[in-house]
């Protein structure tokens, strides 16, 4: 399956990418995060990160669909 | 359409390029007895480090969606006449406005509670990140360093 | 003399003839991370009665003394960088500003607490009285009527 | 003893006076309040009113001195 990924803040600095298209073997957002963490050596675990699909927060066990836009959100610090 | 517009006027979340400049209009509705405001300013120190400046970055699409949910929830839960919130993006210097919140309520009790609730929610739910630059030349994404050791 | 002036700048209580017009200056000190503001507006109803307008009257000498004590106590107790309060006197129409409070703190927690504390203290300690005029043509000094029956 | 009195808000409306000079037999502020309440038929009791001498709040049992400025403060309602 192929999905689109966008990166922000600490993740963007680590992988040096704003966005990319990713193709691989995964079903849920959690599966995808595991693959991406390995690829870029992200050290934040799933308790520290929140996933979003198509500009909305989602659960880690949400299934992904072809061409979904996925964002992994490191700890926020607004205000 | 008209109702939708009214709801948007009563509860509004915005992102500002650069420091926030929220117009200071005190009156809102003849039923409002209290306007409670919170302005978050860039402080010259954080967690013992001397801050030089900082930079806010956002996932704008989701930040606007989540921020709008927060102000709408506040209007409903605290029976407010209106709630506004604007958050800065980009580079900010010491003393500049990072976030402004305005809440109009019938009584001061709900006003204070709602304003406090909104800033707490914005800080914990809205995908905005802060990169602090220190006077020693270093910088870091706040809360994103070493979180494996002590959580967030 | 210089220290006295500084203390007066950091903690100030004022009476305003007519609606309050407190300048909206957000910055105060590079150590301030939070500006919390309260603005009390004239509401069109109170205790089930339709309010037309109201009039504030003060024992000015004692009000200024007591109000100054309150903002100075707040600066000390909540470790604020500064606290201002201005209260209106005379006739006010619906929607106009009766009182404005601005509090600068390092963190939002103390800021919200201090601002809330100041308005509560002003309402209970400062000799200012409010005469409400109602749409039915009657008027009364708030809290001074029938207090023998239900206290205040 | 002679003292000066100022009246505010509800008290001012009842006695129709901003201020007056009062001469009589009293020692404390409480004594004076009793006399003034009788004179103008004020109905607020001492729990509902606060006394001030010379522009400062004081206790009800404070002794008065010749020419003191006394104010009886009905329930305040600022804010």
Describe what you observe in this structure.
The complex is a heterotetramer, with 2 copies of chain A (about 80 residues) and 2 copies of chain B (about 150 residues). By secondary structure, chain A is α+β, with helices and mostly antiparallel strands. Chain A has 2 helices and 5 strands. In chain A, strand 3 (about 50-55) and strand 4 form a beta hairpin. Chain A is globular and about 35 Å long. Chain B contains 4 helices and 8 strands. In chain B, strands 1, 2, 3, 4, 5, 6, 7 and 8 form an 8-stranded mixed sheet that branches. In chain B, helix 2 packs antiparallel against helix 3 (about 110-125). Chain B is elongated and about 50 Å long. Mean pLDDT of chain B is about 90; it is low at about 1-5 and about 145-150. Classes of the chains: A alpha+beta (about 80), B alpha+beta (about 150). The interface between B and C is medium-sized, with 30 and 30 residues.
Describe the structure concisely.
The complex is a heterotetramer, with 2 copies of chain A (79 residues) and 2 copies of chain B (152 residues). Chain A is an alpha+beta fold and 79 residues long.
Which descriptors apply to this entry?
heterotetramer, A: 79 residues, alpha+beta, five-stranded mixed sheet, 2 helices, 5 strands, 24% helix, globular, B: 152 residues, eight-stranded mixed sheet, 4 helices, 8 strands, 32% helix, disordered N terminus, disordered C terminus
């Amino acid at each position: 399956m192929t999905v689109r990924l966008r990166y922000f803040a600490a993740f963007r600095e680590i992988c040096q990418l704003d966005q990319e298209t990713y193709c691989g073997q995964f079903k849920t957002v959690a599966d995808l995060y595991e693959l991406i963490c390995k690829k870029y050596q992200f050290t934040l675990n799933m308790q520290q990160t929140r996933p979003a699909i198509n500009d909305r927060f989602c659960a880690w066990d949400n299934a992904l669909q072809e061409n979904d836009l996925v964002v992994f959100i490191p700890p926020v610090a607004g205000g | 359409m008209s109702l939708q517009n009214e709801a948007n006027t009563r509860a509004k979340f915005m992102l500002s390029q650069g420091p926030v400049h929220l117009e200071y209009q005190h009156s809102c509705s003849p039923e409002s007895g209290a306007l409670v405001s919170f302005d978050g300013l860039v402080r010259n120190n954080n967690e013992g480090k001397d801050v030089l400046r900082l930079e806010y970055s956002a996932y704008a699409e989701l930040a606007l969606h989540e921020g709008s949910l927060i102000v709408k929830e506040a209007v409903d839960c605290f029976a407010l006449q209106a709630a506004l919130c604007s958050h800065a993006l980009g580079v900010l210097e010491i003393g500049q406005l990072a976030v402004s919140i305005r809440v109009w309520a019938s009584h001061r009790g709900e006003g204070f509670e709602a304003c406090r609730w909104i800033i707490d929610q914005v800080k914990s739910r809205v995908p905005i990140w802060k990169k602090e630059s220190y006077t020693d030349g270093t910088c870091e994404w706040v809360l994103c360093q070493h979180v494996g050791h002590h959580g967030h």
